[in-house]
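ok, trying the design again with the full structure, not the truncated one.
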């Protein structure tokens, strides 16, 4: 909550899944007569240039593992963002949303049949030319 006369910062991340123009809007609500305030947003996604990172790992030796999640960060040691919204059944993943000139850091977790997620694996890195 932001009080009268105060200000705040809102960061919006633009990460379109493909090249082209993307539009959207942000609605801000308050108790003002002009509420809600709509702010129109737009941006243009550009082609990633065909770069990708292929990851493979050894299967977990823990019993009951049903899948894996892959995480990526842009700083050594994280923080990391989950890349796949559903569990991967195989021990492989291709990250096609990378940018030339950027270094990425990856970790993997295993999920068991009770949806308990393991600690992060050892980190690996990839630099995109």
């Amino acid at each position: 909550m932001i009080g009268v006369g105060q200000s705040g910062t809102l960061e919006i991340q633009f990460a379109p899944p493909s090249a082209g123009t993307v539009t959207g809007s942000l609605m801000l609500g308050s108790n003002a007569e002009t509420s809600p305030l709509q702010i129109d947003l737009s941006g243009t996604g550009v082609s990633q240039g065909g770069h990708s990172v292929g990851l493979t790992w050894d299967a977990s030796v823990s019993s009951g593992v049903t899948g894996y999640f892959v995480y990526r960060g842009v700083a050594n040691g994280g923080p990391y963002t989950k890349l796949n919204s559903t569990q991967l059944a195989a021990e492989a993943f291709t990250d096609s949303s990378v940018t030339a000139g950027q270094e990425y850091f990856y970790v993997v977790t295993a999920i068991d049949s009770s949806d308990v997620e393991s600690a992060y694996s050892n980190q690996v890195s990839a630099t995109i030319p």
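Keeping the full-length input from now on. The mean pLDDT is 88.
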